[in-house]
Write the structure tokens for this entry.
Amino acid sequence: MFIKQNLIQLKEQLPEHVSLVAVSKTKPVSDIQVAYDAGQRIFGENRIQEMVNKYEVLPKDIEWHMIGHLQRNKIKYMAHFVDLIHGVDGLKTLLEIDKQGKKHQRVIKCLLQVKIAKEETKFGMDVETIQTILNSSELEGLDNVQVTGLMGMASFTSDTEQISKEFASLKTVFDQLNKDGCNLSVLSMGMSGDYKIAIENGSNMIRVGSAIFGLRNYIA
Ligand SMILES: *Cc1c(COP(=O)(O)O)cnc(C)c1O
């Protein structure tokens, strides 16, 4: 019951232009079904095998997003259904996604992950690398991937000023790239603890797990 309540309350707060990815990692299929029955259609997972297992048993109009760090050799297992891959960390990964997308005659949408947090443990590329990729002739040659935007994670801190600064820096990068002619529409930033700050700073896609499904048993 609480899943439905959480979801409805959260959606009521969201501006129209912000889409919600319900992050269901570690949660059972029955929880996802509850959210689905309450109208949610976009779900995010961070492990490919777990997402495949859930995809196979759940309604086929769900849009599955891969939000975790990617193991390149596993991309093939989700290439026939994944809708958006958030955590792309380099050209090599894009090449593999393209190769797998081609096998299924699909165009797989991708977001490039930008490192905005101070913590060393967070994944992501620096702005120069992102620019290089977006301007590369290799990317132009990839018919089965489409880079539609950027994704970032703020530092894990209670310092809201810091979080706000990091999200604002990503929005600046996003705007600058678009000014330079990149056609980016998705800015994925914000999780349960910081999605309000993210939206204030220009996010149009939030990835929310525990605020919908409750706390996870382990940090994934
Ligand atoms: C787990 C996860 C989320 C959701 O985290 P919550 O704090 O539970 O909302 C969002 N983004 C990524 C990349 C994640 O791994």
In short: Residues 91 and 133 are 6 Å apart (CA to CA). The first strand starts at residue 19 and ends at 23. The chain has a mean pLDDT of 95. The beta strands are 19-23, 42-45, 63-66, 84-88, 108-114, 145-152, 186-189, 205-208.
